[in-house]
Structure formats: C-alpha cells, structure tokens
Amino acid sequence: MESATTQNEFGPLKGLKVIDLSHIMAGPACSMLLADMGADVIKVEKIPGGDDARRMVPPTVAEESAAFLIMNRNKRGIALNLKTGAGRGALARLLKNADVLIENYRRGTMEKMGFGYEALHELNPKLIYCSISGFGRTGPYADRGGFDLIAQGMTGLMSITGERAGGPPMKAGAPVTDITAGILACVGILAALHSRASTGKGQMVDTSLFEAGIIHTYWHSAICFATGHAPGPMGTAHPLNAPYQAFPASDGWITVGAANQENWLRLIDALEAPALRDDPRFLNNAERMRNLSALTAALTPLFQKRSVAEWLLRLEECGVPAGPVLDIAQMHADPQALAREMIVETAHPTAGKVKAIGLPIKFSDTPGGVRKAAPLMGEHTREVLLEHGFSEAEIEQMAAQDAIQMPASTKKGASQ
User: Fold this and answer.
1) Residues 318 and 211 reside in one and the same domain
2) 3-state secondary structure of 164
3) Is the pLDDT of residue 64 over 80?
C-alpha cells in the first residue's frame, strides 16, 4: 500500500492536503487535477454506497465502474458514515489540518452536519473551502439541485448547439458544465492558496455549473450584446469567422480553419479554385459570413474530390490549419495524444490494468502525472486514520459501529 509520502513524490502541489467530499463529476474533476499535480487528495465516500459514480454502469472494468475509475485516480479513499458521531468526528480531525475542502452538496447540507464554512473556518482558519453546486450559493436558484443537462439548457448552450436554426435543442456531447466547473474550482482554489500565502487566512471558493455554462457563451453573448438578437445553432460553423467548419471529403470529414484572410487565400490555392479569389461574396470575412450558406455550397463539392488523408497533406503543405474528425477510439490511438501522454495506464487492485486520460498540463521542473488507480471503497481508511492519530483500537471500534468501512485486505491483520 502506498503511503502519503510515496503519493506526493512529485508535482507542483506536493505537500498540499485536500479533503474531497464531492461525488460524480464536477468536484472529482477538480480534485483529480489537484491530485495529478501532486496534492494528497483524500476522497471521503459516504456509507452506505459511496460515490454515486460507482453505480453509473455499464460499462464496468472487472465489475468496477468505468465512470468512477476515470475520475478518481491518484486519490486515497476513505469511507465514513457521516450520520454517526464517530464518522463526523473522524472528518473533523481530517479537516483540522487540511489545506482544502471540496464539496458539492446542496446548500445547507454541510451546515446540518456541522461542517458549514463558518464552523470550519473557526476550526481551521487556513482552510480553503470550495463549494461546487448547480447554481452557486447565492441568488434565487441557490437551493436548487443542478446537473449538466439542466445547466446546458439554462445557460443558452443548448440553443446554440445543433445542425441548424429551428431544430430541437441539443446538448453538447460532453458534460461541459460539469468539467468546466471542476476546472474553475481548481483555478479558484489555487488563487485562494496564493492569497493565503500572504494573508495566512483561508476563504470560501464558490462556483457552479450555471456559471461554467455561461462562460462558454463569450462569442455568442458578444453577438447578442451588440445586435440585441440571440444567435442560434450553426452546425460546425463559427458565428464570427468563415470558413471555419467541417467539410465532407470523399471518405470522411475534415475540419478546416481558414478564418483569417491569409488562410483563406491559402485555402483557395489548395483547392485550386482561383475563381473564388475574386468572388464578391467571399472577398473578406464580413462578406463570407453574410454569404455563409453560399460559401459552404461552393466549397463542399471541392472537398469531396479528395480523401481526408489527401486533404490533410495538401492543406498542411499550403499552411492551412486542418484536422480529421476522429471518434473517441481513434483519438485514443492518435500519435499526438500518445506523445503528450494523454492516454495512460494504471494498475488497479481488482480491475487490473486500467486506461485513463492523462494530465493536460505539463511542468518543466515539477511534473505531475497519473501515479495510481482510483481507490477501492474505503481502501485507505485505516491508513488515513492512523496518520491522523487514531489508534488501532479506535479504528476497530469505529468499524464495529459501522462508522467507517474498509476492504477486507486492509483490515487489521491483513497484509498491507
């Protein structure tokens, strides 16, 4: 079993202690980034059941939830029954010298358990308390629960996603507000830690899926502010630049980013279509946007003359940004993804070798990375409690009271 010292061997956040009470996606995305960058993240799961992501099946890897495995690598796992006094007492001891707490409960839940911000600030004035919720901790929607689907609908994202205006609302394929909220929370935590370095005081960091969705509308909000009209979906096209979209080749699809004038002229050369250069409908970006349907109609048959591979080679030679449209499995095998260590493998105690997405931030001097698989339910309960001053007898008593949970392999007398 790895110790905290082993876990924190590298990464710019080495020595940072994070208590993670969050579940499913947004909070775990935040704590995963912190763990990948070297923080000692202690994931606290509820008894019974643990993180709800454990039940987001299928698919599974050797009966372990694939959804849970991919979001919780590099973390140590502890299982506490916070409905018991002993479970709450254990959490309080963990928080007394922690640097960061992450939670994504509905407003009021932490307060009912005695772990609201004010109480924890008194217990540990240096603690950074990060709350991730559906709509934030203030405002008329603060008491509502929130999910990515709801946030995508309410922030306008579903109104600008889809093939064409007039179609049904469509969500982005990825849970963009969940993942973005996790990233925003991570940014907020790091900013609060920077402030604490000079003030010595922790603070509340509060962000939400709602705000995470809103910030994805920068371009579309700019259009709405300027014109008074809400833009609609445009398929793969861009609301401000053209051509900047996907086109069908003879054997698949290709994306082309020829938005500025220089790249547009290069594209004309690559297409061997000199007549486009003097076409008044396409002379500059403003005209191309005004005539986007005509532009698409003019370019589509030209792209259909060659294969994706031929176009990628030709466009690269001409200096036009372009790329293939890959599915997820193809992305996993892409040489750039592999070179950037974005597809990695971990060893899980029951699931065996498990693939994961790598750390998307590279550091020259303090590299982070993926070091260990997601924990079993309560895998590190004994280890963590021992580190925080609990005796073996106390741990056994808590286990007998169902205040904690440990896998059989970590119970007293089992090999470590």
Assistant:
1) no
2) coil
3) yes
